[in-house]
Amino acid sequence: MKHLLALLAFAIAVSLPLVYQPAPANACGPAGPFDFDTYEVEDYVSGYAQAIELATSGRAVTSTITLPGTNEVIDLRFQGLRQGPRGARAANPSTSATIPPTLYKSIVYVESSYTNASSATPFGGVGPILRSFDCGYGLGQITSGMTNSVGSPTAKQAIIGTHYLFNLAEGVRILAEKWNSAPQARPIAGTGDPSALEDWYYAIWSYNGFAFSNHPLNPFRNPLRGGLFNDADTGGATPTATPTATAPAGTPTATPSITATPTPTPNAIVGAGARSPLYHCYDTSAPSYQKQDGGGPLFGYGDYTYPERIYGCMRYPPRRAPVGSPPGTPATISFWAPVEVSMPDFARPEVAAAFEPQNFLDCEQAGFSGGCPKMDFPTSFPPAVVAHRDPTPLPPASASAVAVGSPSLVVDGSTAITLGQKSDGTYDTAEVSVRNAGSWIAPFRIRSTATWLSVRHPGDSPDRTLDGSIAIGVETDVVTQQASPGPPPRTRIAVKGKASQLLIAVQPSLVPAGGGEASIWIEP
């Protein structure tokens, strides 16, 4: 019979400053995806909106966090933005220049539908983080820097995966990095003015990957999306579009591919004076919402480029019905106020020249070195066309303290546990509870010094290995059952606060001969 000693170590760290190291957006990594718990805000529309306003203004995270023991430093502070056109671009970013908040709200909606946790988690509840197939995590679908290389998360990875505010802060930093990469590695829209919504075109494109698939004149994109060459002069002809049953790779399965007849070439589109369209964001009043006879739009989410989706949802914000409403309840709650934007107008020769597809392909072939200067294009043509601004006011500085709270983790349970092997070959388990003696959300990382010793919640699948979790302060309602009209109808059930119950277990197939000793680290 083997006897295994598990030592529970608890480290307390309460400080927060950070320095940004750009990282490529890789897949999950050789050790597979991380498994984090997180919190889903109950009043998520206003709650996440305020968090985004804090993050885009540089007020979400204003200091660093240092973990004692490992001395890891987490730096999620906003790094600021460079300003100016090519040839007169500021060398250093300024924190006085910030990201328009509605722009990032739209990105978050397109990326995650304003949800931070998995679909099984009720609003106001605790559950697994929303994770995509390529290991994008949470609201911002953060992939850059989230590769699992060694089997345990870094402190930065853990806080991004467990706390929505830090997830958003990192997403904002990634978007700022894309903006700041011009002109060395990206073209510049307009005059490089961060307050001009249209000048964010290439940074938005880059957030999703600066790939030709998001080029507005990509011949694989249906040129009729948005309707009639997008207000182009078609000489009285009415182009027709015919839906097909096939969907290209990467297109949501609910969105059919659209093939047009005829299919004009990019040069023909430019010659006709077309505009890059605005995605309707499923607003039936949007001009690009062309309803089919059977219901639903002729062109859906997958037919539009990423910038068209982001700018489109800014202009035509999504709406929802109150949580728990019966089916058919009108969606009356708007996620944000509509914001006007202008899309690239190919009727203007300088814009058409910038979007010549060969310019992108040549720059891609060169590894984007030099930032694709031929793709620079003006966004304002005074007095008729001027860039738009986001009217959203700055959040109060005090809102940051409320969003972070005053968490204080306490571990209840033995710190030295012997897990013996039973006669049937299985092993004993042990449980500890991690609670928040402070307020709001207390995130923590879980690390094991041996692969044979893992942590999960009681009732979880034995295959689950938890990499990070949270404890909620008792001042906060934690929803365990969301109200629903049914059938059968369900009422809202909530408790005050939530501790994280952890089960420490042995993976029998990984136990070394003769047993062993290992430690579990729980680190805020």
How is this structure best summarized?
This protein has 524 residues and is α+β, with helices and mostly antiparallel strands.
Head-to-tail CA distance between termini: 36 Å
Number of helices: 11
The helical percent reads 10-25%
Strand content: 15-25%
Strand line-up across the major sheet? 11-1-18-13-15-16
Secondary-structure element order, N to C:
EEHEEHEHHHHEEHHEEHHHEEEEEEEEE
Q: Average pLDDT across residues?
A: 87
Radius of gyration: 25 Å
Biggest β-sheet description = 6 strands, mixed
Structural class: alpha+beta
The geometry reads as globular
Number of strands: 18
Structural domain tally: 2
Describe the structure.
- With about 525 residues, the protein is an alpha+beta fold.
- The chain folds into 2 domains: about 5-175 and about 405-524, no CATH class; about 190-375, no CATH class.
- About 20% of the residues lie in helices and about 20% in strands.
- The chain is built from 11 helices and 18 strands.
- The strands form 6 sheets. A 6-stranded mixed beta sheet has the order 11-1-18-13-15-16, with helices on one face.
- Strand 3 and strand 4 (about 75) form a beta hairpin.
SSE blueprint and pairings:
Elements: E1 3-10, E2 37-39, H1 44-56, E3 65-66, E4 73-74, H2 101-112, E5 126-128, H3 155-162, H4 164-180, H5 201-207, H6 228-231, E6 240-243, E7 258-261, H7 266-271, H8 306-315, E8 319-320, E9 333-334, H9 349-354, H10 357-365, H11 399-404, E10 409-412, E11 416-420, E12 430-436, E13 441-448, E14 453-456, E15 468-481, E16 493-498, E17 500-506, E18 517-523
Parallel strand pairs: 1-18
Antiparallel strand pairs: 1-11, 2-5, 3-4, 6-7, 8-9, 10-12, 12-17, 13-15, 13-18, 14-17, 15-16
Helix pairs in contact: 1-2, 1-4, 2-8, 3-4, 4-5
